[in-house]
Amino acid sequence: MTYDAVILGAGHNGLVTACYLARAGMKVLVVEKNDWIGGAAVSRELTPGFTYSNCSYVASLFRPEIMRDLELPRHGLQILPYEGGAVLQEGGGYLGMFRDHDANRREFARHSPRDAEAYDIYSRDVLRHCRFIRPLLLRTPPDPARFRPRDMGELLWIGKQVSALSEAQIAGMVRFWTMSISDYLDHYFENPVIKAYLAVSAIIGTALGPMSPGSAYVLLHHYMGDVDGNIGAWGFARGGMGAITRALASSLRSSGGEIRTGAAVEKVLVKGGRTTGVVLEGGDEIRAKRVISNMDVKRTMLRHVDEADLPGDYIASVRKFKTRGSSGKLNIALDGVPKFPALPEGSTALKGDLHFTDSIEKMERAYDDWKAGHFSRDPFQDVMIPTMIDPTMTPPGKHFMSCFVQYAPPKIEGRDWTDADRDAFGQTCLDQIERYAPGFKNLVLHVEVRTPRELEAEVGLTEGNIFQGELTFDQLLFNRPVPGYANYRTPVRDLWICGSSTHPGGGVMGAPGRNAAAEILRDAKLSVRDMSDAWAVL
Amino acid sequence: MIPQRHYEKPLRETPFHPRTAPLNRLQNWGAWAGYMTPSCYGDSAMEHTGIRNTATLYDISPMIKYRIRGPEAADYLNRLTLRDAARLPVGAVHYTAWTDDAGQVMDDGTLFRLGADDFRLCCQERHLPWLLDSAWGFDVTIGDETDRIAGLALQGPVSATVLAAAGFDVSALKPFRLATFPLSAGEVTISRTGFTGDLGYELWTTPEDALVLWDHLMAHGAPLGLVPTGTDAVMLARTEAGFLTTNLDFIPAQQALREDRTRSPLELGLGWMIAWDKGPFTGRRALMAEREGKTSRWALVGLDIPGNVSAEGSILYHGKRREAGFVTAACWSPTLKRNIAIAHVAAKYADCRDLWVEIYALRELQYHKLMLPVTKTERPFFAPDRRRATPPGRF
Ligand SMILES: Cc1cc2nc3c(=O)[nH]c(=O)nc-3n(C[C@H](O)[C@H](O)[C@H](O)COP(=O)(O)OP(=O)(O)OC[C@H]3O[C@@H](n4cnc5c(N)ncnc54)[C@H](O)[C@@H]3O)c2cc1C
User: What's one Pfam family the UniProt record gives for this protein (chain B) (predicted)?
Assistant: First the structure.
């Protein structure tokens, strides 16, 4: 039997693509190498009673258009907004974060009255950039080098958006897209802690430091999402990030799609420049009219497609696509809530994210270690305790702590990570938390430590890059992943890619998967009726 | 000093809270710039009647207040704002506004000249970074004194009489002038200003003396009909007067997400305040170009609407079909017995000919659509002579 489409990988983007195709009437199979689904949007129980968000841990980017199209709430998805967070300072002070505008202003004013008011101007400017970029998320980027009618139409559309901007805004936009976050924040703020807090979103998942040009854009990538229209807000998926992929899988099955786990793809079959299906490890062959890879572009093309079936310059570009890993993760089962003496009793900060990096300089020094091929001795950590809000992930009174860590290089001084390196990395992170929460270590029941090595081995993220390729401007829009192939196609006819390596990039967003489905359906001359275009919320 | 646990009460209490809270029978509070103030103590219609019939007290402490001092304070304000601050006499106040370089309004407010080199700027929004950045090259100091000054608006035809009874002789005080009087150990500054279009004053003192002031005014004023009023009644009065409110009648330029949402002073009907010849000021070049090129995109107008259904939030149409503008404030005016509105109309419809308003009239849970012709009318809608008379009338 021949499937209309086989999707390689049950990451959230692969599942999104599969859902749209199945809804349009295609016979769809998803094959996943792991015994579980989810890719980097996954929740597993590694120690009894505790569910982790093993990779991604917070949601904001996931497009509500997709949640609605695929009826994910009916399939169990619930997004919980959260509030709070704090940067703990070295001397015992802190800067807290509040959803309430007045409370947040006063908190900033504790550190700098001027910056407290500058924050509104800054937010306005970042929101203006969001207004520009958000409509681009659910559109295939046009290829400026080709003159096909649809590319021309899209270019014109973008031109129209740009021409609506004033000269000052265009100048501001170019600055924003090219600057370092450090320089960008200097335009608005004077206080080091405030700047350290705001710089965080610009380094998450990227192998750039806060002083590297281009890091400001990464901030936008983390700001342009929303929780129910609240732009820039983040939330938890109830039950962990795996709840998103569970809901997608349920939605897929309800429209007739199939998922096979424990089914790793060995090879994409190509005959006469066209794919005919895949062979799994172990030899099973699956025939399909089209093959859609959710793996990153490097893994797909360099490991599973015969070199002879690809043009040389394409291979060269794929090989040069930057996937430098920079992040690690600790997932911790806790016997109770750790106490941070700097925070007032009952502080809401514990319901949001906690940082211990109180200046941009410290953040940059953490990056210096990465450049030298080492994990950061004084790392940046984004620490959260989702169970402060979500009652479903642990037994009552117990907690799950998620620690996202930077920086961790793909290789240690040029050689592969060892178990000893991984343990030393984990210890460094635990020690740092202990410094701000004495007694914390006594609460630890179980720890999962993940370096780029583990991320690559489990999820297949090449070099452990969490976005399936860096989000630098040179790898965005029509350059993602490779010039000429930003439309989710590949040099092999009927072989597509739908993961975060494609526009608009990484994060649990679903947009690449949805856009790929739009192209595939258009190519198959099937209706894309049940697919929402981007909604305006600003 | 901001206390560490400030977030437990995101809306702060004003210095008058110990008095306003027990009087607030409905416990109906509104948020204003991070403070809570009564929206309505018990009955907005009665409170509005107080404004137009006797005298009312309204807590204006949350208003943002910046103190600007220094040998070049007047030069600085001349550069910053639209009117000629150098010509503002000591002891006087003027209503002014300021714009960004593109000539788009950032806020309006009142500027008090407390001394030759000493000013206070009262406004709705926060502007510290802008004020500080604009001070480059000027010998001035700028500080936020919002929570160091408690303010009360005493408004209504009997307000001068209340002040006289309280021992503050303001009979010689002209509109937009101020005078200072002793109050317990400190003092109170009284300016003949307000937001109701009626006879009225604003009283300024320290948070420490706030309750003394309230009690003193109430003790002498209550027999004359002095009552506290909430924001709802004041907003009705300001609409009758035709005054603008930032973020209700226009979006301040520094907050606009859409570039076309901003407005120039000419587009807001504030062209009269621009002192074109005073020398350079921020926005001047853009405003000159707008004036000379007649490139204003909008006009702010006062409208008279048939019937009695308030047109709040309504859309205006030319020839009943083409969208031509929108209403930002409207009410059935109890004082004027007229249905009035403040609206933005596209410049080419500024004469308001063949202009219609679409109103959804709520009648027992059901909306009925009305399409009514509008008439352009003078603003302020309500401007009684008593507001200007010096000495002021007894009622
Ligand atoms: C540690 C970490 C923290 C993160 N935190 C956040 C966050 O908080 N919020 C956020 O929005 N984003 C976060 N991200 C990023 C986000 O999770 C990813 O960008 C996104 O989940 C990638 O989804 P995807 O569907 O494109 O690909 P993937 O999730 O990478 O899916 C690829 C799938 O292909 C499968 N696969 C690989 N090889 C084969 C094979 N040979 N055969 C069959 N299947 C195969 C993999 O097992 C996987 O299931 C984080 C990522 C990581 C790693």
Answer: GCV_T_C
Give the model confidence (pLDDT) of A80-93 as tens digits: 999 899 999 999 99
Chain A residue numbers with beta carbons less than 8 Å from the beta carbon of B33 are 102
Query: Could you tell me which residues come within 8 angstroms of residue A209 by beta carbon, excluding any fewer than 6 positions away?
Result: A203, A215, A363, A364, A366, A367, A368, A370
Both B138 and B79 in one domain: the answer is yes
CATH of the domain at B328: 2.40.30.110
The answer, yes or no, to whether ipTM is higher than 0.90 is yes
The CATH number of the domain holding residue B30 is: 3.30.1360.120
Structural domain for B173, as ranges: 10-61+149-229
Asked whether the beta carbons of A511 and A224 are under 8 A apart, the reply is: no
Which pLDDT score, from 0 to 100, does residue A398 have? 98
Q: Do B134 and B157 lie in a common domain?
A: no
Given a cut of 80, whether residue A269 has pLDDT beyond it is yes
Nearest-by-Cβ selection for B259 from A98, A109, A169: A169
- Indicate whether B350 and B211 sit together in one domain: no
Cβ(A41) – ligand 1 distance below 6 Å: yes
> How close is the Cα of B81 to the center of ligand 1, in Å?
54
Tokens standing for residue A482: 């490779």
Q: pLDDT class for A529, splitting at 50, 70, 90?
A: confident
- Residue boundaries of the structural domains of chain A: 2-41+60-77+238-320+471-523, 80-237+323-462
How far away, in angstroms, is A221 Cα from ligand 1 center? 17
Which one-letter DSSP state was computed for residue B274?
A: -
Residue A44, token pair as written in the block: 């597993």
Please report the DSSP string for B79-131 in residue order: HHBSS-GGGSPTTBEEEEEEE-TT--EEEEEEEEEEETTEEEEEESS--HHHH
Domain A2-41+60-77+238-320+471-523 has CATH 3.90.1150.10: no
Q: Which positions in chain A touch B7 (Cβ < 8 Å)?
A: 96, 98, 100, 103, 106-107, 348
